[in-house]
Give the backbone structure.
Amino acid sequence: MRALGRRGRRGAAAPAADVAEDRWIEVDGLHKVYRPRRSEPTRALSDIALTVRRGEFVSVVGPSGCGKTTLLKILGGIVPRSEGTVRVAGRDVTGPLPEVGMVFQAATLLPWRTVVQNVMVPVEVQRLDTRVYRERAQKLLSLVGLDGFEGKYPHELSGGMQQRAGICRALVHDPAVLLMDEPFGALDALTREHMNVELLRIWRDSGQTVVFVTHSIPEAVFLSDRVVVLSPRPGRIAEIVGIDLPRPRALSVMTSDRAGAHVERIRAHFDADDIETTPAAGS
């Protein structure tokens, strides 16, 4: 597959020129407290400090309700922080940034639009050059194996194909960072494994920086350079585990003793019912 080169975006702000490559994402002293009008405040995140290198793949795991999705939404500018510093590509995050693409748990494709029309939504929203980005959309669809499906509608695609289209939509405007919130959680086990392999190929060819939220420890180990382990609510960083498995990775790597050791190290932070205990991919 042909790699997709980075290109500048017409009409969209470029990442700050002076941002360090090893601090492409920077979070310091992050706290998040939800304050509902009719109930007590809820502390979702407490004193999060994290840096992510440009081009790195980082996963976030933790028990349900620990603030994983909240952290992702704060990085994406969808949810405001209560305290602390959050910067992406050298820019303070005070709202959605054109430098950020997001993939959600469901593909959320517009049913009345074709696949390529769905992929082009961010281009239209940001008022970019449709002729330039239509070509990029076609290349992305080819990259994920959706050649020939450009004119299909979402109901004509499988769940895995819809998620591939959703990834293309998040990548089409060439964001500096890709945020993914359990994008494969609703897929069957075989499709999920296939999508993990596809995602690594897309990441390798596109050069994006990825922050990936998942309940699955084996999935996090298979995909990541590092895994951020959050504690039960309020979410704190319990440990950041470096994954030293060789790249490129095939599913068979998950049967290795080294992969198993990483899985068990992360799982030791949680009770058996706190987090998904699906067998490691390839086992």
In short: Residues 189-206 form the longest helix (18 residues).
